[in-house]
Amino acid sequence: MPRSSPYHRATARPFVAADCRGSTLLEVLIGMLLISFWLLGNAGLQAASLKLQKGAEYRLTAVTLAAELGERMEANLAGSLAGQYVLAETNSAPASQIDCSARVCNATELAAYDLSQWSQRASAVLRLKTLSVTDVTPPGALTTYRIAIAWEEPRGRRQYADAVGQSSGSTNNSTEVMSHLATKVLRNGSN
């Protein structure tokens, strides 16, 4: 029989729970810590997702508004070809004294009414910064309008700077200015 050392026992000692005292509590605490980090990360992702969703909603609204004005221009082709759909850069809706929904209007009156209704709707659904509609028709070409819509979107804690490190003039601490530019080309019957 081999000689056994004092550190080697011939018989195995039975498992005693006292040897593992506190290890399960430590495992539970580490698990809770990991779950709390996961929950905080998930909450941050949800907040970012909601912010991006709102930004996408604003952009979709701007595109829809530009398309709506383009359709109004096509419906009033005489006013459009005469250059009546020009709106100087503004941040509020111009008032129209004429209500073309209650009576028949000529092309000029309808253009003023359309611009008033359109800009009021834009002011109502966007955090509007500026609106403008300009006639950019080159000489002898098709009638072309440029529709510009600018709005403010809330932003996070990001700071923007220009090339020399100064804060950009188009942003402040809580919003940034976004814009959509659309071009509408109109054809008359002879083109």
Summed up:
The chain has 191 residues and is of the alpha+beta class. The protein has 3 helices and 4 strands.
Tell me about this structure.
The protein has helices spanning 23-75, 77-81, 107-125; strands at residues 87-90, 128-135, 143-154, 175-186. The protein is an alpha+beta fold. A 4-stranded antiparallel sheet has the order 1-2-3-4. The termini are far apart.
End-to-end Cα distance, whole Å, is: 113 Å
Assembly form of the protein: single chain
Averaged pLDDT:
81
Main pleated-sheet profile: 4 strands, antiparallel
Helix/strand-derived category reads alpha+beta
Helical stretch tally: 3
Q: What Rg is obtained from the alpha carbons, in whole angstroms?
A: 33 Å
Q: What gross morphology would you assign?
A: rod-shaped
**Major beta sheet, strand line-up:** 1-2-3-4
- Percent strand equals 15-25%
| Spans where pLDDT lies below 50 across 5 or more residues | 164-172
Q: Fraction of residues in helices?
A: 40-55%
Beta strands, count: 4
List the helices and strands in order: HHEHEEE
Topology of helices and strands:
Blueprint: H1 23-75, H2 77-81, E1 87-90, H3 107-125, E2 128-135, E3 143-154, E4 175-186
Antiparallel strand pairs: 1-2, 2-3, 3-4
